[in-house]
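Table S2 (continued). Query chain:
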Amino acid sequence: MTGVLKKNKIISPVLERKKFTTDETHRMMKAGILPEESGWELINGEIIHRMTIGSRHAGTVKRINLLLNRLIADEFIIGIQDPVHIDEDNEPEPDISVLKMREDFYTESHPEPSDVLLIIEVSVSTLGFDREVKRNLYANAGIIEYWLVDVEKSTIETYKKPKDGKYFEMKIYERGDIVYLKHIEQLKLDVAEIIPEETK
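Corresponding output:
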């Protein structure tokens, strides 16, 4: 970055960032500018390319997917790294989303916050982004429950009761604890099943 030295201060130029909408992002995907399968997220109007997924992250997502399918797949739809349309500036692709059942399986349109019962993000190297940016995004959208799986610490942070852009209930679960979803009675999981010892 260049700057102008004046009175012993560096005055940096203002760098303009181009913001995008979901419609613009979708058009770029259809045109092949952004390959649809490459994991692009739109966060606060900025296009973010998901990092390469390591084996611990991928394995944890697969394990959670298997556990959820055993418990709730007959009544709910489980999305794996699929888009959730929040507004014209935000269309994240959470690692896992638990959605209300819909006959078209969301082929006509992406799910919106009112369709979402739970979002799960698995964090190995993106903890700060998932805990701050993603959490605030989901709280602002009114996503009723958000789980953050911290693979390094073998914990699951749960966030509930969104209001005015914040979650007002937060709890941390460790191995041996049972984590549950308030809105789906049969969804109860042992943290050790999600992050077993060999994951470390």
